[in-house]
Specification:
alpha/beta; globular; about 40% helix; binds NADP nicotinamide-adenine-dinucleotide phosphate; Rossmann fold; 9 strands
Length: about 250
Amino acid sequence: MNTPQLAGATALVAGGTGNVGYFAVDALLRAGAEVLVPSRDPAKIERLRSRLAPDLESRLLGLRGDIGTAAGAREIAAQVRDAGGLDAVVSTVTSWHQGPPVLAAGFDAFRSVIEAALYPHFTAAEALVPLLRPGGAYTTVNGPAGFVDQVGAQVGPIAAATAAQNRLVLAIADETGGDPRVNELVMWAYMGPNGTRPGSPLRGEAVGDVLAWLSSPAAKDVHGATVHLRQPDQAQRILDGQARQGDLG
Ligand SMILES: NC(=O)c1ccc[n+]([C@@H]2O[C@H](COP(=O)([O-])OP(=O)(O)OC[C@H]3O[C@@H](n4cnc5c(N)ncnc54)[C@H](OP(=O)(O)O)[C@@H]3O)[C@@H](O)[C@H]2O)c1
């Protein structure tokens, strides 16, 4: 596979301490970028650092803050501005949720999942999109729950949040008009706290590489796309510059 090229670039991974975020951070570092990761918990930055190869972790910069609130995201943006701006953002914020059937769980439970799983996508984009330099890229990660035909009652709130996330990202793409480029990767794979989960059709490294590719000048013509990444050969075609119709949404 061709490694995406981001030498000299500065990227930020919102949610970079998480299961998917780790692979985004690792791939962006392998592509040569300096990578900023905000977190509410410094211990999570240290765990992320400990998982990275020693020759990569020196280009990781942790930032203290909460990207999931408007005030917290503004504080993170101020720190990023002081560090000189961004060439790429990858957002893997928010977490999976499963609970009692959606109506039985009640409105407060629904509201708390929507607030926790959807709002951070707004606050992160509102604060970080303006910091992207010309030619920059903003890429979000989403899951299949908002796209499948059969929606289980226990995953109703997260399915609603992820479907709304996708519509929000497409609206932001329309607003930027392509500079920065704005895309969403829907990951049909399973990542856990210790890496790729058994049975996952895709390895986290391949997901990370496609996220780094979407962040790089090699993807300069990709904007406003919802990329459903399902198979290793699809990832390979994208990285080799041989994407077929449907590979990129
Ligand atoms: N894991 C999978 O197999 C999988 C599959 C398909 C799609 N996805 C999607 O990928 C994204 C990330 O999943 P994940 O498994 O990596 O989740 P995760 O391990 O829980 O990590 C998410 C990260 O986002 C930050 N975060 C979470 N909720 C937040 C909030 N309300 N406000 C601010 N920051 C928040 C946290 O950072 P700090 O605590 O450090 O601040 C956390 O490390 C989700 O959108 C998920 O739907 C995941």
